[in-house]
Design goal:
alpha/beta; Quinone Oxidoreductase, Chain A, domain 1; Rossmann fold; 2 domains; about 30% strand; RNA binding; metal-binding; Zinc-type alcohol dehydrogenase-like protein; ADH_Zn_typ-1
Length: about 325
């Protein structure tokens, strides 16, 4: 099968950063689906895994953790899907990725593709959808069906992939959304997605949020980096919650969190698959739920750019765009 892979971990400017290769077509066993990949999208995790390091892969390594496609074959223990089903998923960071014609993925972390979306539009959603859904509804304990209606949420770094779906999930749950964006085009983007207010995360945010009439906010999601930690601690209400997707080695002062009895949550959407948790199937359920919301017109795709076909040149181009740090929404690469 065709695949885009790497053997050396190189700067993206290096033409050898990704290679077009031929690899054996895998076989579905157990609860695995063999998916014929139609489209993939690129996330910051792709660029972090590919980033330069002194490692050489004896067997070409395939990256990619967002895909849509059609089930080609099923393992003997599969119960949720059948050959011919259209699916979308983010996969498992411990396994071979989606930048290949065919990929094995456990059915418990796969959802039925939204019927109203193309494969490219669907491929933009899985990883960011799982991340945002788990961050809000599982980590922070917000009710997706509106029991927390009217509460406020500050989404820091709202214009990126996770933020673009997080705004929509928060809107559907009835929250008042304060989104951050640092450029006019991303401010427009987050407003179109449903943000009620926009502030600039490159300027002092406490003053901006309070100027909007919010002395404190009920929930905070840090979706870019932890340099905003002190701001988040200052703005979170007593007994509120902060969730972040950013790992950090920087000091994080906790006295303000303790005095407010506030909570900190880490969200890592690969945790269930990586650790084979008993509730892995929850990712199947949430992806299927969101697909239904998309088909009902309540959530839209977050794709902002589509490249074609899936080859080393276009995967390199997509990585380069992500590494600028200025991409809005999701970048998708479609078709072999």
């Amino acid at each position: 099968m065709k695949a885009v892979a790497l053997t050396h971990y190189l700067p993206i400017e290096n033409p050898q950063a990704f290679l077009d290769v031929e690899l054996p077509k895998p076989t579905a066993l157990g609860t695995d689906l063999l998916v014929s990949v139609y489209a993939v999208s690129i996330n910051p995790v792709d660029t972090k895994v590919r980033s330069p390091k002194d490692i050489v892969e004896d067997i070409p390594r395939v990256l990619g953790w967002d895909a849509s496609g059609i089930v080609e074959a099923v393992g003997p223990d599969v119960t949720l899907f059948k050959v011919g089903d259209e699916v979308y998923y983010a996969g498992d960071i411990t396994r071979s990725g989606s930048n290949a014609e065919f990929q094995l993925v456990d059915e418990r972390i796969v959802g039925f593709k939204p019927k109203s979306l193309s494969f490219a539009e669907a491929a933009a959603l899985p990883l960011t959808t799982i991340t945002a859904y788990e961050a809000f509804f599982e980590r922070l304990g917000i009710d997706r069906d509106g029991a927390n209606k009217g509460e406020s949420v500050l989404i820091i770094g709202a214009g990126g992939g996770v933020g673009s779906i997080a705004i929509q999930l928060a809107k559907a749950a009835g929250l008042v959304i304060i989104a951050t964006a640092s450029r006019p085009e991303t401010a427009t983007w987050v407003t179109e997605l449903g943000a009620d207010h926009v502030v600039n995360h490159n300027q002092p945010m406490v003053e901006q949020v309070r100027a909007l009439g919010f002395h404190q906010v009920d929930h905070i999601a840090i979706l870019n980096d932890m340099r905003h930690w002190d701001t988040a601690v200052e703005l979170i209400r007593p007994q509120g919650g902060i969730v972040t997707i950013d790992g950090t080695d920087q000091p994080m002062a906790m006295a303000g969190m303790k005095s407010k009895s506030a909570s900190l949550h880490w969200e890592f959407m690969f945790a269930r698959a990586m650790h084979q948790t008993p509730d892995m199937i929850e990712q199947h359920r949430l992806l299927t739920y969101v697909a239904n919301e998309v088909d009902a017109g309540r959530i839209r795709t977050t794709v902002s750019e589509i490249l074609a076909p899936i080859n080393a040149e276009n995967i390199r181009a997509a990585h380069a765009l992500i590494e600028t740090g200025t991409a809005k929404g999701k970048i998708v690469v479609e078709g072999f």
